Recover the amino acids of this structure.
């Protein structure tokens, strides 16, 4: 099964989240449902960014796919810990 890696921007907030949602939706429509999100450049994520990742994850799971997270910045990781999303996603 094909897997896509998506590089997240340095600031992952409202505008970037909308683009991300459309990008992932397009891939899912093409049958790609396994993603690795590369956070190596991402230093900030807001609630909109988190929400889009969670809704995209649900869509992937509905289609027998998944989303994994890679290279979380300590501050971004803290957000995932505080929201308990650390228990939802596989983190590399």
């Amino acid at each position: 099964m094909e897997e896509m890696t998506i590089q997240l921007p340095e600031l992952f907030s409202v505008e970037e989240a909308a683009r991300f949602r459309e990008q992932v939706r397009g891939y899912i429509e093409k049958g790609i449902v396994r993603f690795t999100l590369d956070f190596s450049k991402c230093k900030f994520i807001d609630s909109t960014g988190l929400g889009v990742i969670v809704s995209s994850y649900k869509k992937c799971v509905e289609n027998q796919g998944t989303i994994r997270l890679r290279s979380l910045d300590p501050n971004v990781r803290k957000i995932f810990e505080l929201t308990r999303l650390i228990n939802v996603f596989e983190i590399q």
The chain has a mean pLDDT of 96. Helices lie at 14-29, 47-62, 74-82.
